[in-house]
Amino acid sequence: YNEEEMIEDCVRSVYASCYPIDKISVLVGSDGSSDGTISILKKLQKEFPSIQYFQYPRSGKNKILNNLKEKIRTDFTYFIDADLRFDTKTIPTVISNFADKNVGACFTPYKIMASTDNNMGSMGEKLYQSFEKFLRFKESQIWSNINSIGACCFRTHLIMPIPNDKVCDDLYYILGVNKQGFRVVFDNSTFKYEIREKDIHDEFHRRIRLISGGLATVKSMSKLLNPSAGWASFFLWSHKMIRWASPLYLLALLLFGLLMEESAQREWMLAGQYFLYISAFSGYFFELSKIRYNIFKIPLFFITMNISFVLGIIRFLAKKQNAIWDRSGLQNKSKN
Fold first, then answer.
1. Which residues pair with 193 in a beta bridge?
2. In the chain, fewer beta carbons within 10 Å around the N or the C end?
3. Which segments of 137-252 are extended strands (E)?
4. For residue 283, how far is the Cα from the chain centroid?
C-alpha cells in the first residue's frame, strides 16, 4: 500500500538475482494504493514483461494474497515485502533447499540497512534478530522452524488460503507447512536486506500488531500446540507462547520481591528490578533527546517489547487486529 518509494528497487532486486530471468514471474498486489505505485509498475513492466500487477480496492493484505494465490503458475512462490531487497544469490540458494522433498518452505536472515542504525528501534531489532537467527538455525537443524521473518519461499501447493484478516499472513503460511508435515528450513548462507527506517515508536506499534496477529494465527492453528505435533509443538511453545507470556514473569518477580520477608536477598532482588526500569526510562529520555548513550538502549528495548506484548494480547482479546496496513506497517487507524 502506497510504496512508491520502495517498489522499484524491490522489483529490480528480484531480476538482478543470479536465478534465470525466464523462470521468474513477479506478481504485485496493490491494496488500493493512492500514490504513484501503479505508474512505477507500468514503467517496469515495459522493461520486464513478466511483471503482473493488480490494483485491488482497499481490503487488507490477507485478501490481496488470497487473490494473488489463484494467479500463481509456478512451482515455488517467494513472498517479499516492498521494503526488502534480495542479494544476488538469495533466490538460487533458497531454491536449492527444495532438492530435499521434505522441505516445504525456506527463508533467510536479513540485514538491516536503515541509516538510523544508532537509535533504539534499529539497534534493538538488530540484537533481537541476532538471537532469533541462532534459534532459527538450531530449530532448522533439528527439524523445522515455526517462526516468520517477512519473506519466505514455499512450495506453491502447500500455501493454504488465509482464513480471515486477523492472522499474520507469513506466520500462517509457515505454520500451515508444518501442519502438513513438511519442514521450514532456515538458510543462513545467504540473506536479504531491509531498508525501512526504524524508530522506537514504529517498532513498538509493529510489535503490538505482530503479537495480536500471532496469537490469532496460533489460535487458527491450535492443533500444532498439541504435543502430538512433535517438534513443531515444542518449538511453538518454547519460541512463541512462553515468550509472549514474559510480562507475567516480570510481574510475578516484582510481586514475589515485595511479598518476601525483609532480607538481603529481597533488597538485591528489588534493587535489580528498580535498576532495570529506571534504566529503561533513562533510555527513553535519551532516545527522545537524540543523545547517543547506548548502555540504556538494551533495557529500553526489553521493557518496550514486554509492554507491546501486553498491548498485543489486549488487542487480540478485543478482536481489533486486522490486515490493513499503512506504509509504516501499522494498522489503519480507521479500522481499529
1. 85, 111
2. C
3. 152-155, 183-186, 192-194
4. 25
Q: Within 10 Å of residue 74's Cβ, how many Cβ atoms?
A: 11
CA distance 168 to 207: 12
Measured in Å, how far apart are the chain's first and last C-alpha atoms? 18
Model pLDDT for residues 217-268, shown as the tens digit of each residue: 999 999 999 999 999 999 999 999 999 999 999 999 999 989 988 899 899 9
Strand locations in 195-248 (E): none
Determine phi and psi for 183, rounding to 5 degrees.
-90, 150
CA angle 115, 116, 122 (to 5 degrees): 115
pTM for the complete prediction?
0.87
Amino acid at residue number 315: R
**Phi, psi dihedrals of residue 258, rounded to the nearest 5°:** -70, -30
Contact, 77 vs 154, CB < 8 A?
Answer: yes
- Which residues have CB under 8 Å from 336's CB, separation 6+? 320, 322
Alpha-carbon dihedral sign for residues 193, 196, 202, 205: negative
**Are the C-beta atoms of residues 104 and 158 closer than 8 Å to each other?**
yes
pLDDT tens per residue, range 172-185? 999 999 999 999 99
Helix axis angle, 297-317 to 246-259, nearest 10°:
110
Spatial contact of 186 and 105, defined as CB atoms under 8 Å apart: no
SS (H, E, C) 252-313: HHHHHHHHCCCCHHHHHHHHHHHHHHHHHHHHHHHHHCCCCCHHHHHHHHHHHHHHHHHHHH
The DSSP secondary structure of 18-66, one letter per residue, reads SS-GGG--EEEEEES--SSHHHHHHHHHHH-TTEEEEEE-S--HHHHHH
Helix 297-317 × helix 120-142 angle, to 10° = 70
Alpha carbons 138 and 146: distance in angstroms, whole number: 12
Residues in the chain, total: 336
